[in-house]
Amino acid sequence: MITMGSPDDTPEELATTEGRPPAGMEIRVTAPDGTPLPPGTEGQVRLRGEAVCQGYLDEEETSAAFDADGFLITGDLGRVLASGHLVLTGRTKDIVIRKGENISAKEIEHLLYQHPGVADAAVVGLPDAERGERVCAVVEQPAGAPPLTLPEVTAYLREAGLAPYKLPETAGGRRRAAPQRDAAQSAQVQAAGTVRPDQPAGTPPRLSWAGGA
Question: What is the distance between the alpha carbons of residues 171 and 197, in angstroms, rounded to a whole number?
């Protein structure tokens, strides 16, 4: 067991946290380079203790999964409160790194979900030789909704308070149905669970825009 609730926890702690680690378990929140972060700061969640496996049969996999102090790199993002309670906030793979800036895909998706012309959305990072990654937003619209355009989406996101560098915006932005997306984009979006190869006929089109500025 990694964390657990306690009879001493408040209703808020029980509802909004994962609990605290039991005896024999340690939780460390770090920067990407493994530097420990202070309580309340979001970072990578790492675990060490009796409930964590000792490694894998493949030594290379073990080296990649554990840091120098023996903590398992979980791939989760979160923060540890001053009380010791763990709050999970996302996954490291939900982060797009564009020009050295960390961009939360979850933050953009949350805003897109609130748009009346959006039924489903996913934000992924597409490889880019100059920027590291580009922000790609994939949107499915509800049946009968008027088609969204890139300017409409970016204007909505800016009005909602999203920083300009996080926008999936470019003069060469494109609006495509998923079957027309090139192989590299399609593979990444399918991995995010937003495109199904067996998508039935008549399903509302999914539109994609990739940031490039």
Answer: 29
**Cross-strand partners of 27:** 47
Question: Is there a contact between 77 and 91 (Cβ–Cβ < 8 Å)?
Answer: yes
- Is residue 13 over pLDDT 90? yes
Q: How far is CA 115 from CA 70, 85, 106, 206, in A?
A: 44, 34, 15, 15
pLDDT in tens, 176-195: 333 333 444 444 444 433 43
57 three-state secondary structure: coil
Angle at 38 between CA 35 and CA 42, to 5 degrees: 80
The answer to whether the CB of 84 falls within 8 A of the CB of 13 is: no
The residues near 70 (Cβ < 8 Å, ≥ 6 apart) are 48
Q: Which two tokens stand for residue 193?
A: 């669970």
Handedness of CA 134, 135, 140, 146 (dihedral sign): negative
What gap in Å lies between CA 186 and CA 180, rounded to an integer? 9
Largest CA distance in the chain: 56
Model confidence, pTM: 0.55
Q: Which tokens is 34 given?
A: 């493994």
CA dist 166 and 209 (Å) reads: 12
- How does pLDDT run across 69-126, given as a tens digit for each residue? 999 999 899 999 999 999 998 888 788 888 888 888 889 999 999 999 999 888 888 8
Is residue 40 a contact partner of residue 60, using CB atoms and an 8 Å limit? no
Burial class (CB in 10 A: 0-12, 13-18, 19+), 170: middle
